[in-house]
Amino acid sequence: QKEVEQNSGPLSVPEGAIASLNCTYSDRGSQSFFWYRQYSGKSPELIMSIYSNGDKEDGRFTAQLNKASQYVSLLIRDSQPSDSATYLCAVDLKTSYDKVIFGPGTSLSVIP
Amino acid sequence: EPEVTQTPSHQVTQMGQEVILRCVPISNHLYFYWYRQILGQKVEFLVSFYNNEISEKSEIFDDQFSVERPDGSNFTLKIRSTKLEDSAMYFCASSDRERFGYTFGSGTRLTVV
After folding, report:
1. Alpha-carbon distance B82 to nearest alpha carbon in chain A (angstroms)
2. Chain centroid offset of residue A94 CA
3. What pLDDT is attached to residue B75?
4. How far apart are CA A88 and CA B69, in angstroms?
5. For residue B49, what is the enclosing H or E element?
6. Which residues in chain B (11-50) have CB-CB distances under 8 A to chain A?
7. B43-47 contact pairs (CB < 8 A, 24+)
């Protein structure tokens, strides 16, 4: 069973729209959840972390966590062309001491 | 803004040769990691390191791989006998807290020929 799954995309949204990115994970005991942004040829950059069920907002970004459904999402409001990147969902593994694994990423394209 | 520094940015090596990838984590961080990303594939966990010892390692991190913190600032990944399939971007990351978000370095692109 794949540990962290994401739709590969590409997801295309018009500028100014809301982009919705989804992630599911298999380890029911996971406690820490992260969203990273990766521009082509660059390293991952942390944009959001979330540890409790519910919503967490930071500027134009909102992370949502539902541990019962093993589901994490990222909403990007007022999408800008500069948001065009691959978004990586990352989850820690309860069964390990210190190991965070990444999903395959969703490619987002914001069309001007 | 503090950053994680990796050198070299690109290394080409012959199959069977040893390579050492170098990282300088953020100075007050205590948790260190190596990940790799084969072109077009996902970011894969290799190893986590804390208090001068390995905390976790993946199946990829076999006897050909080793990590070391030789002094108070550097964190290195050694691949003893490189294979063609080791060609990838290698990222170092650090964190000041366990299970917290990481700061990644800009990566070393390793090409094995």
Report:
1. 23
2. 19
3. 96
4. 28
5. strand B43-50
6. 31, 33, 35, 41-45, 48, 50
7. B43/A38, B43/A44, B43/A88, B43/A102, B43/B91, B44/A102, B45/A99, B45/A100, B45/A101, B45/A102, B46/B77, B47/B77
* Residue B58 phi, psi (nearest 5): -95, 175
Q: Kindly determine whether residue B99 and residue A49, on different chains, have CB atoms separated by under 8 Å.
A: no
What is the residue-level pLDDT of chain B in tens, covering all 113 positions?
889 999 999 999 999 999 999 999 999 899 999 999 999 999 999 999 998 999 999 999 999 999 999 887 899 999 999 999 999 999 999 998 877 899 999 999 999 99
Judge whether B60 and B50 are in contact, CB under 8 Å.
Answer: no
**CA–CA distance, B7 with B110 (Å, rounded to integer):** 11
pLDDT tens per residue, range A25-54:
998 889 999 999 999 999 999 999 999 999
How many whole angstroms separate alpha carbon B20 and alpha carbon B76?
A: 7
Backbone φ and ψ for B53, nearest 5 degrees, come out as: -150, 160
Per DSSP, what are the bridge partners of residue A35? A48, A89
Tokens describing residue B43 = 């970011």
Judged on CB neighbours under 10 Å (0-12, 13-18, 19+), B6 is buried
- The residue with tokens 């990282």 is B23
Q: Which of B50, B56, B105 sits opposite A43 (nearest CB)?
A: B105
Contact predicate B16/B79, CB 8 Å: no
